[in-house]
Write a structure and sequence with these properties.
The longest helix has 29 residues. By secondary structure, the chain is an alpha/beta fold. It starts with 5 loop residues before the first helix and ends with a helix. It has two domains: 29 residues; 305 residues, 3-Layer(aba) Sandwich (Rossmann fold). The strands form four sheets. The chain has a five-stranded parallel β-sheet, with helices on both faces. The chain has a two-stranded antiparallel ribbon with strand order 1-2. Strand 9 and strand 10 form a beta hairpin. 39% of the residues lie in helices and 15% in strands.
Length: 396
């Protein structure tokens, strides 16, 4: 009888174990790619996770999105008392329910988190319903861009007869979000596994601000803002301001083509007699940055970037320190002018620009955005509803 070589005694089990591990890895990889939403969370920006939910919200300064956008850079608020406490409910499709139900909704609004209004009791859609005396349906959802708005418009714009359909277009990121990839690219095994590991591992510690000479944290934000006799500490996300300076050739960019496609989706879903408008929403940085105290404003100006068109036709950024403030602030209307030009290409659309009303209110020392968040406070939503209602009453 021949004695088995010692190497074979451990090689066969090793190969069997390796083969089993590879099969298990292949099966789990296949499961991740076939059932990504179940195993690693939503992979598409359009996915809503709020269907049939009700939530009691207590909104505090420390809940602001600037802490996530600028980790370790924003000084925590000294007073974290709640701004407001309220309840939000979403329908079976995951969209926010109106404050007061109506039998019909001849007006529908689409958009992102500015339209959904997660951090206020009454988003502008509810204020618009009060001003017009009709039902207004809110189809806004957080993180939506033009692609997602187009998808929702195709499904819900004509869900019932409409007199008006509005797209709440946030100029701080909608143009950039037009060409982003999926939330998670489930077609890629590497991306799927990375998302699974990100979901399973403990949260990373929040970055801390570097110390100054005395050892105290050195924060970059909030910045001091003085308007007339009013003083505010406001935190800004410069990225939103950069998107206001679109280049002269932006209309021929891939980003603009996606915005056109979203407008096409509305047109395809709606009968010709339905009135349509894009509500141009300026970012907080557009409205209040001019009032930052001069010494701090110089640092913001030095770090400025502006939008340029890449060789591939996609809009991107390039450093552009501000040298002439008057010319710089004038250039911030370029994005608004781009959207106006895109609407002028087609019949049946009008632009409702909130910028003049918000600039005028800011000059009157009114605070329309949360100090530690990029979104409107209740006063901002109320003003938006007022401006939109006046425009609608003027007719198409």
């Amino acid at each position: 009888m021949t004695e088995q070589h010692p190497r074979r005694r451990w090689l066969v089990p090793l190969l069997l174990s390796a083969g089993g591990a590879m099969c298990a890895l292949a099966l789990l990889t296949a499961a991740l790619m076939l059932l990504p939403d179940m195993l690693i969370g939503p992979t598409q920006w359009v996915t809503r996770t709020t269907a049939n939910r009700t939530m009691d919200v207590t909104w505090r300064p420390s809940d602001g999105d600037v802490f996530a956008a600028l980790p370790g850079q924003v000084r925590p608020p000294a007073d974290d008392a709640p701004y407001a406490a309220f309840r939000i409910a979403w329908d079976t499709a995951g969209f926010r329910l109106p404050a007061e139900p109506h039998g019909a909704y001849p007006v529908a609004v689409f958009g992102d988190s500015f339209t959904e209004g997660f951090n206020v009791e009454r988003p502008y859609s509810d204020g618009l319903a009060d001003a017009l005396g009709v039902g207004v349906r809110n189809y806004g959802y957080r993180a939506y861009g033009p692609v997602e708005v187009a998808q929702v418009a195709g499904e819900f714009a004509a869900a019932e007869p409409r007199q008006w359909v509005l797209w709440g277009y946030f100029s701080g990121n909608d143009l950039g979000d037009a060409v982003r990839g999926p939330r998670i690219d489930a077609r890629s095994p590497v991306a799927a596994w990375r998302a699974l590991f990100d979901r399973l591992r403990p949260p990373s510690p929040t970055p801390t601000a570097p110390p100054d000479e005395s050892g105290a944290p050195r924060y970059n934000q909030p910045l001091p803002v003085i308007i007339g006799g009013s003083y505010y500490d406001l935190a800004f996300v410069s990225y939103y301001a950069w998107w206001q300076q679109t280049p002269p050739d932006a209309a021929s960019s891939r980003n603009a083509d996606v915005v056109r496609a979203a407008l096409d989706a509305f047109d395809a879903a709606l009968p010709p007699e339905t009135c349509r408008a894009v509500v141009f929403i300026p970012p907080k940085e557009r409205v209040y940055a001019r009032y930052i105290v001069e010494g701090d404003r110089q640092f913001v100006n030095a770090a400025n970037q502006r939008v340029v068109t890449s060789p591939g036709g996609t809009l991107t950024f390039a450093p552009a320190p501000v040298e002439d403030e008057a010319a710089y602030f004038d250039s911030l209307y370029a994005h608004r002018d781009l959207i106006a030009a895109l609407l002028a290409e087609r019949a049946g659309w009008r632009l409702i620009d909130l910028t003049p009303a918000f600039e005028a209110a800011a000059a009157e020392e009114r605070l329309l955005y949360y100090p530690y968040d990029t979104h409107w406070n209740q006063a901002g939503h109320d003003l938006a509803a007022q401006v939109i209602a006046e425009a609608i009453k003027d007719g198409c």
